[in-house]
């Protein structure tokens, strides 16, 4: 090998020059990088302020556009303007996320400076767009006609739709009357428990579905009026449903009436349910119906003799259920099968049904009460009770219904259930009762210390479930609240009053006085929402145990008001304007529950130090800024609720005094490490809600860990701006933490709902939490902008099982994510039902074989958005039967590198229950959606949305495998998606055909297709449709006016456009 000659002379000089030049350039690059980093890090506050001001100017411009839209009824902003508004709102949210307490975190300064500078540049770009396109634009350039949509109905009661023959006829009669041009006010009447509310809710839903035509309404407004009728309050309830903005605490009056009057000139259906007295429509802005021809008023009432400002044009009764419908409802509620009926006796079961008199509520209550009884003797006893019991007279309550409710109440298994039932009637009619309030009242009612507050909460939930099963209370749509049917409440109030130990006067529509005599034996008193403005100097009720004064804004408590209430154990003065507690509170030596929530003027509660027996103290959303420094006198305090107390200061010593505390809610004060150390020392603490805005606390190693495992329910989060769910009992949401300490790892191990936002350079350090618990309790995980994460968890080793109970995965802005998991450890991810992935930049296959092997049994929904490197979704191996039989929805949006939905050949039966497939905004790599084999698997698909896929040339590819053919009515058409009823094909510039073999375009059969939206498919010259193959087609909607010429030139399979028996219309909103 020859030896190279040394570089000498001129060559040496040239080489040194090159090296020095390169070094100089590298140094300059480094200097520029360092300068840029320093530039973003210094003056962070100034950059942040500049970005805020720029965004504020944009928001003002956005509001100007929206104001123009409000003044253009029947029109909406064009696509460009709507997109601009959406971009502004996204930027507004970004700047809100930047401007939080993380500004004090030195580790976040560079990130905040960079984001602020980016937001400032983005705001400048959006402002240029506004000035160029929208600021001076004329209305014809700015607006397009609005496409009518089904109305969004608010405040409808949670009822099951009627499904009985007789009710369908009544529903049709009411709707016909509503549509009658000569009918302006319609009375719907019937006895209590007959089903008026359910019927009116059905009317609202049916009318709300209308999207066009002369019978379409602009608004459907529903108001539950109730017995204590307050016409001013009715106006306050109507206003937001009409889009009227009310000023804070705006009271009913001429100003509100004038605002409402302006809205009644539109087509509005006003439903007033549970009306007891005449309605003066003038007081809600409605004069003569001639002045408001578009308004229809539908009134639900028990009375037939009501007179209103407008006379009723129709009176429609809600009749009792027919014998057949009664039997169907009764069997369903009693859970009767044929063998049960044979055992009980058909005649006995039907005789019990007959005693309900065709009243739906009675049938539901008595049926539910008997659902746990299967002996003939038990049913005969019930029949005798209903026949022979002496019903008490209650106005407006049917005797048969009273008997049924009384029987169900008597059959409650224990006094605790009866107590909860009676507590529910202490609230006003129609009130949604917080389960939390009931629990806290019960804690006060009981003297025993043998069980914890958490046990009492669990017991209360169990009792409520039992009452719900008996149809004595209802869940209005959320697990946190319950309510009573007004008839059931009437009976409950009667039962509670029978022994003269309960006084209830709730929801009075006029100012009342608190009773001051003849109440020596009363044990429970509720005067909630009774507009009390006068109280006696001393309330002389020596036996009183519970006093509910809440929602009396103008109540003034005298100095000695509580002096004679020494047996009082529960006191609730929430939602009042009191500024302090009277000194006589110190006489309440037995008080165990004190609720002062939302007392907006309350400044001091120092006197509570003298309530030595207090177990529950709730000060939620008051204006208190400080508590006593020491509260060591409250040795029995179990529950302390300090939620939403802005600016509250709590001393560390106060927390150390409350050694018996079991439940703590603290979400707005500035916590320190010292505070959290004291909280972690509370050995009885079982339930905790805590906001920790200073993320450095998550790093602290000073927090003791010994008792944290005792926290059975917790909700811990780091940012007030973070939108978090409260569906689970153990939730942890952290934003901006770089590292976490051992105490947080303990929480992670126990958490059900887990969120990390902008966290963790070392995810795997967290992935091996204390005790080796590999997220076994986690049910929901959300990872946002955690850029160190490359995979959710590596499962390469046998027995390396993790996320065994995980149900939902949300991954957003993880720029380095490669996989959800590596490997295929058996047992991991097996309960996953939902996967949502957005902007995860390095993922190529969403569901590789190893992950698919674990999730295929439970997965129901998968959504993948803006993942720029994703090429395929599912990876199948030919030898395994991974059927994805529970998968219902696939949504794929803006996947620019997507080439196929499946890699490999899915086995027969895969996707058998998929209902909806959406593929939008995918790039040039996606040439076709389905192979012929894949097409045969989507046997249950009902909705197919294919929009904006720039490279798509055909829906079904030609890979040499012919599609299955099926003889239908002497034709030999190809089956494609036999259950698809809704299909949308938009902006598919390269689409040439649905399917062709070679150069031959094939004819497809769409037997269930009813709606087709199509547009922006200029290269598609042939639409696969034969008269016999699409018998259910009702409508073809062209996406824009430009598509009309294209449509006229279409070629059809074996027919002409004139033979189509469906509506052809052009959208007015564009693509």
TrEMBL record:
- Domain Disease resistance protein At4g27190-like leucine-rich repeats, by residue range, is 827-930
What are the entry keywords?
ATP-binding, Leucine-rich repeat, Nucleotide-binding, Plant defense, Repeat
Look up the domain of life of the source. Eukaryota
Task: Enumerate the SMART domains for this protein.
Answer: LRR_TYP
Task: Respond yes or no to whether keyword Magnesium is given for this record.
Answer: no
Q: What family classification does the UniProt entry report for this protein?
A: Belongs to the disease resistance NB-LRR family.
Spell out the protein name for this chain.
NB-ARC domain-containing protein
């Amino acid at each position: 090998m020859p030896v190279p000659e040394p570089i000498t002379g001129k060559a040496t000089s040239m080489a040194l020059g090159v090296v020095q030049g390169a070094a100089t350039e590298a140094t300059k690059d480094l200097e520029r990088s360092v300068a840029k980093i320093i530039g973003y890090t210094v003056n962070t506050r100034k950059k942040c302020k500049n970005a805020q001001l720029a965004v504020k100017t944009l928001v003002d411009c956005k509001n100007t556009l929206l104001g123009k839209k409000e003044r253009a009824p029947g029109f909406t902003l064009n696509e460009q303007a709507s997109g601009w508004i959406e971009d502004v709102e996204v930027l507004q949210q970004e700047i809100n996320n930047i401007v939080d307490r993380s500004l004090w975190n030195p580790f976040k300064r560079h990130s905040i400076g960079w984001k602020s500078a980016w937001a400032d540049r983005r705001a400048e770009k959006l402002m240029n767009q506004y000035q160029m396109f929208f600021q001076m634009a004329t209305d014809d350039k700015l607006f397009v006609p609005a496409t009518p949509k089904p109305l969004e109905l608010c405040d409808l009661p949670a009822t099951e739709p009627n499904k009985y023959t007789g009710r369908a006829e009544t529903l049709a009669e009411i709707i016909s009357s509503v549509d009658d041009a000569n009918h302006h006010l319609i009375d719907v009447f019937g006895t209590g428990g007959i089903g008026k509310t359910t019927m009116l809710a059905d009317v609202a839903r049916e009318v709300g579905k209308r999207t066009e035509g002369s019978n379409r309404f602009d608004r459907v407004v529903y108001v539950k009026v109730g017995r204590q009728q307050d016409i001013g309050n009715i106006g306050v309830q109507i206003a937001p449903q009409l889009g009227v903005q009310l000023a804070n605490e705006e009271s009913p009056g001429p100003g509100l009436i004038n605002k409402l009057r302006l809205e009644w000139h539109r087509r509005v259906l006003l439903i007033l349910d549970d009306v007891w007295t005449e309605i003066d429509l003038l007081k809600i802005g409605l004069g003569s119906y001639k002045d408001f021809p578009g308004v229809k008023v539908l009134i639900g009432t028990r009375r037939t003799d009501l007179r209103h400002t407008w006379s009723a044009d129709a009176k429609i009764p809600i009749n009792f259920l027919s014998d057949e419908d009664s039997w169907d409802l009764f069997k369903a509620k009693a859970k009767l099968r044929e063998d049960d009926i044979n055992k009980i006796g058909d005649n006995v079961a039907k005789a019990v049904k007959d005693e309900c008199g065709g009243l739906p509520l009675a049938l539901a209550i008595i049926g539910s009460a008997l659902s746990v009884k299967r002996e003939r003797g038990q049913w005969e006893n019930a029949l005798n009770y209903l026949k022979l019991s002496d019903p008490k007279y209650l106005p407006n309550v049917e005797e048969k219904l009273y008997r049924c409710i009384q029987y169900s109440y008597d059959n409650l298994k224990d006094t605790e259930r009866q107590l909860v039932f009676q507590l529910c009637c202490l609230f006003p009619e129609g009130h949604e009762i917080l389960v939390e309030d009931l629990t806290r009242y019960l804690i006060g009612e009981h003297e025993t210390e043998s069980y914890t507050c958490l046990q009492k909460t669990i017991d209360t939930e169990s009792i409520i479930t039992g009452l719900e099963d008996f149809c004595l209370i209802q869940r209005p749509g959320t697990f946190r609240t319950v309510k009573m049917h007004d008839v059931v409440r009437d009976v409950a109030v009667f039962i509670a009053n029978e022994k003269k130990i309960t006084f209830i006067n709730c929801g009075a529509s006029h100012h009342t006085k608190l009773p001051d005599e003849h109440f020596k034996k009363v044990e429970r008193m509720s005067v909630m929402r009774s507009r009390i403005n006068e109280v006696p100097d001393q309330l002389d009720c020596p036996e009183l145990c519970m006093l509910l004064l809440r929602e009396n804004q103008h109540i003034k408590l005298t100095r000695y008001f509580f002096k004679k209430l020494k047996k009082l154990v529960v006191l609730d003065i929430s939602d009042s304007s009191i500024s302090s507690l009277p000194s006589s509170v110190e006489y309440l030596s037995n008080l165990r529950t004190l609720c002062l929530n939302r007392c907006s003027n309350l400044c001091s509660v120092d006197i509570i130090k003298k309530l030595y027996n207090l177990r529950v103290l709730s000060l939620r959303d008051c204006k208190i800024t400080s508590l006593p420094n020491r509260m060591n006198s409250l040795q029995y305090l179990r529950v302390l609720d300090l939620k939403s107390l802005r600016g509250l200061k709590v001393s560390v010593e106060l927390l150390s005094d409350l050694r018996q505390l079991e439940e703590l809610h603290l979400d707005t004060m500035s916590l320190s490490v010292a505070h959290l150390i004291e909280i972690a020392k509370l050995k009885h603490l079982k339930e905790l809600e805590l906001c920790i805005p200073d993320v450095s606390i998550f790093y602290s190693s000073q927090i003791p860990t010994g008792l944290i495992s005792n926290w059975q329910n917790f909700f811990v989060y780091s940012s007030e701006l973070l939108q978090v769910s409260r569906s689970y009992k153990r939730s942890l949401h952290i934003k901006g933490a770089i590292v976490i300490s051992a105490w947080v790892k303990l929480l992670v191990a126990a958490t059900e709902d887990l969120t990390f936002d902008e966290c963790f350079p070392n995810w795997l350090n967290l992935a091996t939490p204390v005790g080796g618990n590999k997220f076994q309790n986690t049910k929901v995980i959300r990872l946002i902008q955690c850029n160190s994460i490359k995979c959710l968890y590596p499962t390469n080793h046998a027995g390396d099982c993790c996320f065994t109970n995980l149900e939902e995965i949300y991954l957003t802005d993880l720029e380095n994510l490669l996989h959800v998991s590596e490997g295929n450890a058996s047992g991991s991810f097996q309960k996953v039902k939902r996967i949502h992935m957005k902007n995860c930049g390095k993922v190529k296959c969403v569901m590789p074989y190893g992950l698919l092997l674990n999730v295929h049994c439970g997965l129901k929904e998968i959504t993948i958005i803006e993942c720029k490197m994703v090429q395929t979704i599912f990876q199948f191996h030919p030898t395994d039967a991974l059927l994805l039989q529970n998968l219902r929805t696939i949504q794929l949006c803006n996947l620019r590198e997507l080439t196929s939905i499946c890699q490999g050949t899915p086995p027969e039966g895969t996707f058998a229950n998929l209902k909806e497939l959406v593929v939008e905004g995918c790039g040039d790599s996606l040439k076709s959606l389905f192979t012929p084999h894949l097409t045969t698997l989507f046997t249950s698909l009902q909705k197919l949305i294919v929009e904006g896929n720039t490279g798509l040339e055909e829906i079904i590819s030609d890979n040499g495998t012919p599609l299955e053919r099926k003889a239908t009515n002497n034709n030999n058409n190809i089956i494609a998606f036999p259950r698809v009823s809704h299909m949308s094909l938009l902006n598919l510039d390269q689409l040439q055909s649905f399917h062709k073999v070679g150069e031959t375009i094939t004819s497809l059969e769409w037997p269930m297709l009813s709606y087709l939206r199509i547009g922006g498919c200029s290269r598609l010259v042939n639409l696969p449709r034969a008269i016999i193959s699409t018998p259910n087609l009702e409508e073809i909607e062209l996406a824009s006016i430009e598509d009309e010429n294209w449509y006229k030139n279409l070629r059809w399979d074996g027919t002409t456009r004139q033979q189509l028996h469906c509506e052809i219309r052009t959208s007015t909103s564009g693509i």
